[in-house]
Each structure stands twice: as structure tokens, then as C-alpha cells.
Amino acid sequence: MKKRVITALLLLTVFLPILYIGGIVFNLAVLIVGILGLKEMLDIKKEIPIAMKLTAFATFIYFVFSFSSAQNFVFFLDYRIISLILLVLLLPIIFYHDEKKYNINDALSLIGIIFFLGLSFNLIISIRSNNLNLLIYLFLITIVTDTYAYLGGSLIGKNKLLEKISPKKTWEGLIVGTIFGVMISSLFYYATINHQTNIFVLIFSTALLSIIGQFGDLVFSSIKRLYGKKDFSNLLPGHGGVLDRLDSFIFVSLGYVLLMLFI
Fold first, then answer.
1. 54: nearest Cα among 28, 96, 86, 88
2. For 197-247, what is each residue's pLDDT tens digit?
3. 3-state class of 45 per DSSP?
4. For the whole model, what pTM was predicted?
5. Are 68 and 90 in contact (CB under 8 A)?
6. Quick one: which of 222, 216, 225 has its CA closest to 245?
7. What is the rounded (10 degree) CA torsion for 150, 152, 155, 156?
């Protein structure tokens, strides 16, 4: 617990000023964190050829810094570049005679990982460019929900949520986390972003994002369980790796953009 608290304080000390400054400083910080997250995801699988790893990192950087509209989060990609990326990741299959080194499953996994993480970290940059308080709101949903889900599960948790994926998570924790996540995050949104918003829509949307974040955590947990890992890495003492900290937030951000299509 001591390591966990110290690490959290250090992270806040480093990233809060970067979050406030924004611009290229924030964008580069997001890129670095994203590269670390991509490395964790690649390392959790079997070892793949270094040339394919370098291709994955180069492609990831392209995705993170591709142009997006900060106003409506519409993502723009050059389909010629996408076609090239797909060819570069798929064609090498025929040149590796040993399928254990690089095969179709590895290629498709790489494509999925790059698209998923690349678009996710690009979205973080887009949201910050649009509205600092909006990004804080999404972080609040994630942090408050996670904190109170842990406390609720520890104090009154009895009914397992999905025991095969995450044995410690409970329905009681999910409910407590959602309640406090909604209360605190909605108050912040109402006070700093839009005090004229429909309060019922705000509460519903925040609750939905809170739940999406918690199930997003389970998605990442299932990946770790598939490969027999407790954490994605030990980069952050007491917290695991970058993806262990950002798993819920990634899904909250994606969920927010989808909600904007309907609200």
C-alpha cells in the first residue's frame, strides 16, 4: 500500500502540470505513455521479430499524431497509409518459414493492438485540445469509480462479478463505485463544463461511462489472464504497468465519444 501511495503521488506531481500546460508538451507525454503501453501489450505475447515490433511502434506513432477534429472527435486517416500498413504487417508472413516466429495470428493481433491503442491515445490528445475540464471529468469518473469500487468491494463485497476473470471484483463494488463516480464526476461537470446541461442526462451518461470503465478493466484483465500475467509490467510500483492504470480510462474515453453520437 505504501508503494502504491508513493507512486500515485509521484505520478500526480509529474502529470498534473503537464495536463495543465497542454500543447506539444502534453502530446509528447501522451505519446511516451502510449509507447510504454504498446510495449507492455507486445511483451505480454510471445516474442515477435524485431522488424515487426519496430513497424508496430512506427505505425502507432502515426495513429497517435494523425489529425483529428478537436470539436467533434472525427478521426481522419489517409487510406493509402492504412493500406501500406496492412501490407507491411501481413506480407512478412510468407517470408518467415518458421510459423512460431511470425504467423497470421501474430499479424492480426498486431493490427488490432495498433488500431485500438493508437486511436485511444489519439483520442486523449483530441479531448485535451477540445476542453481540459472534459478530460479531467473523464479521469474523475475513472479514478473515483475505481477507488470506491475497491473500498465497496473490500467492505461489503460478497457476490462475485466475473470470478474467472477477476476474482476480487464484486457486484457490490461495482454499484458503490458507480454511485460515487456519478455523484462526484457529475458535480464537477455541472460546475466547470456546462451548468445548463440536463441533470438527468448527465447522471445517466456518467453512470453509463462508469460502468463501461469497470467492464473495460475486465477486458484488460481477461487479456492478462489469457497469458498468465498478474500485471502488464512492474513499471509502476504498487500499480503494475501503464495499461494497468489506464485500462478503465481508455474505455471511458471511447464510451464518451460514442455517447456524443446520440446526445
1. 88
2. 999 999 999 999 999 999 999 999 999 988 888 899 988 887 889 999 999
3. coil
4. 0.90
5. no
6. 216
7. -130
